[in-house]
Amino acid sequence: MLQRWFVLLALLLGVFAGLVAWLNVRGEVAIPADAAPSSGTPEQVARGEYLARVGNCMTCHTPRGGVPWAGGGGIATPFGTVYAGNLTPDADTGLGRWSAEHFWRAMHHGRSVDGRLLYPAFPYPDMSRVTRADSDAIYHYLRTLPPVRRPNTPHALHFPYSTQAALAVWRALFFRPGGFEPDASRSAEWNRGAYLVRGLGHCAACHGGRNFLGATPEGGLSLGGGLIPMRNWYAPALTSPGQAGVADWPTDHIVALLRDGVSPRGSALGPMADVVYRSLQHLHEEDLRAVALFLQSLPQTRTQASGRKPPDPAVRELGAQRYETHCADCHGARGEGARASGGATIYPALAGNRLVTMEPPVNLIRVIVHGGFLPATAGNPRPFGMPPFGLALTDDEIAAIASFLRVSWGSAAGAVSPSEVARFRGGAGD
């Protein structure tokens, strides 16, 4: 009897392993044995350079102080650190031996030139929607970069996440290669915006949130917001008017936020400021407007009330005192902010500001602790910055200021605790 159970268990494990293996190769087309590196036309190279900016590829593949595109930047995750690869055309350590077919397989299926499964810190669940023509253009652009001999840094992942077997199971559960399917009921401009947001722009990688195994819900189509793992910033929901929804914004205001990092309705801070600086400000006007149109069309849902209680009177009084001392000179006695004579924002208003009232209050804490710095862009070349107060104020004082802001000037978002400040003050400060 025991032997039969062992046979049955072995059979089930074999079926499971076979199913996982099949799910990891479904849709793949065998790469011809004679597939070789190739060069593109000048038009392809120029388009590839633009598309690489749209995808913000250089940010991960160029660590601070490192050689452009040569990899080595660490991407911290709850499962360990994944290091970006060398995308220069070096024959031994980069993409020098890759064909356009190999590059397409990496983008579309998340598989390297040697067949190894890639970790989804490279956002191939989103990149899978990129067209073959755009993939080829990016490949041909990367082939024109100066080759840099830099071996890839081994990933530092915890067991069992460091194994290809565990990654294969994850992919079987959460990854399905696909493509972008235009909505025939929508305009070409809307479809272009959807393609950029859900594909090359991989906005869901941050704004989609992640489950306990690091997968984005709905196959990367959700834009319902979530904490950015290991960054300690919250990517607000693009589907909520109380967070980052823009359904009621004028198109020009959305375009200004994406292009300049500042608009009459909001500003880009934290990781989003970096995205504007490195990527979005370089997009063509027609692509910015397409993205804006798509974001305006997202169905908006009200986020549930936090259920937080108002701060104790003593905490509110402490927050009011510290606000008057450290904040009121710029943001105004009643949180009204300050504008230039032409109407441009100098210091943002805090009264009614979504960053202040957002749940969870992660970004408010981060800005008080680390400061708020807008990206320098052509449309906002010398942005004002807010200094950090993380060393000047205690967790209790920061919590008191945040609590005061969240219940003042018509807001009723509730108190922030010192323990939340302690939790969210750490991590990457940019």
Explained architecture:
With 430 residues, the chain is mainly alpha-helical. It has 18 helices and 11 strands. The protein has a 3-stranded antiparallel sheet with strand order 1-2-3, with no helix packed on it. A hairpin with a 5-residue loop joins strand 8 and strand 9 (345-347). The chain is globular. The model has no long low-confidence stretch (mean pLDDT 89).
Brief overview:
The chain is mainly alpha-helical and 430 residues long.
Which short descriptors sum up this protein?
430 residues, mainly alpha, 3-stranded antiparallel beta sheet, two-stranded antiparallel sheet, 7% strand
Described by the principal axes of the CA atoms, the overall outline is globular
**SS-derived structural category:** mainly alpha
Main sheet attributes: strand count, strand direction, barrel closure = 3 strands, antiparallel
- The percent range for strand residues is 5-15%
Question: Could you report the average pLDDT, rounded to the nearest whole number?
Answer: 89
Oligomeric state of shown chains: single chain
For the termini, the CA-CA separation is: 61 Å
Number of contiguous helices: 18
| Annotation, overall tally of beta strands | 11
State Rg.
Answer: 24 Å
One letter per element, helices H and strands E, the order comes to HHHEEHHHEHHHEEHEEHHHHEEHHEEHH
Helical proportion? Answer: 40-55%
- Low-pLDDT runs of 5+ residues are none
